[in-house]
Amino acid sequence: MGRAVKSEIRKMLTTRMWWGMAIAIFSCGALFALLFGAISRTKPDPNNPGVPVFTPLEAAINTYTGGVGFGYVFLMVIGIMTIGAEYRHKTITGTLLANPKRPSMIASKVIALLAFGILYGLVFLVGSVSVGAAILSARGLQAFPEAGTLTRSLLLVLLVLGLWALIGLGLGVLIPNQVAAILIGVGIAFIVEPIIGFAISSISWGKDVAQFLPSQATAAVLGGYSGDPDASTAGLNWWQGSLTLLVYAAIFVAIGTWLTNRRDVT
């Protein structure tokens, strides 16, 4: 297993995708931190009474994690390409000749992808925290209020991005066509799921179901330490959201592994 994991990591590092995605994820974290850091307020504005006012902790968390909604889509795409590129470039044949046990091959990709998920999460945080702290400090706001709680929220970003990478891997195994898998995954994340969530939430019993959708489970994970007193009662808490994302990832990977065992490879 160790050699298989090293092989998967080497595959990722020998392409230009990994550093290209690193630049994109760094930019995503930095740009959203700049935006949220510039507009977050901790005191009421008499000229704009409708503008939301946050506590210093909420403002810092929103600034540092505001780009995760786009960042997790990048990790989903990376997960898809981890297996999709194998089918697209026909390297899956060589991979299976070297490691004929297909569940072992999938497991090695899962471990390697988790490592890259943490790496990309750190890259995201470097971008968001460096730019966010600078803009908050420049506006005279606290950059690191309640350091313990803030650190937990930043660590949860790593968890969210790692789980979305696994969801992408499962989707890539389910749909071997890389382009189709990316289009379907991005379309569901940005268009289909928000529409379904809105439609279900408008029904009396729908909110109890909608909270288990991936995007809302992600929001629950990141909002678990936002300082909002209603957060614990408005939906899932952070560990329930984490468990929901883990279940999605596990189901996708399990079904994909089962299909890979049955699928002919040429």
Structure overview:
There is one protein chain. By secondary structure, the chain is mostly helical. It is 77% helix and 0% strand. The protein has 12 helices and no strands. It has helices at residues 2-13, 17-39, 56-65, 68-88, 92-98, 102-138, 147-174, 178-201, 206-210, 214-223, 231-234, 238-262.
Topology record:
Layout: H1 2-13, H2 17-39, H3 56-65, H4 68-88, H5 92-98, H6 102-138, H7 147-174, H8 178-201, H9 206-210, H10 214-223, H11 231-234, H12 238-262
Key terms:
0% strand; mainly alpha; single chain; 266 residues
Please outline what is shown here.
By secondary structure, this protein is mainly α. 77% of the residues lie in helices and 0% in strands. It has 12 helices and no strands.
Number of strands: 0
Q: What is the percentage of strand-forming residues?
A: under 5%
Rg from alpha-carbon coordinates:
20 Å
Mean pLDDT: 83
What is the number of helical segments per DSSP (H or I, 4+ residues)? Answer: 12
Helix content: over 70%
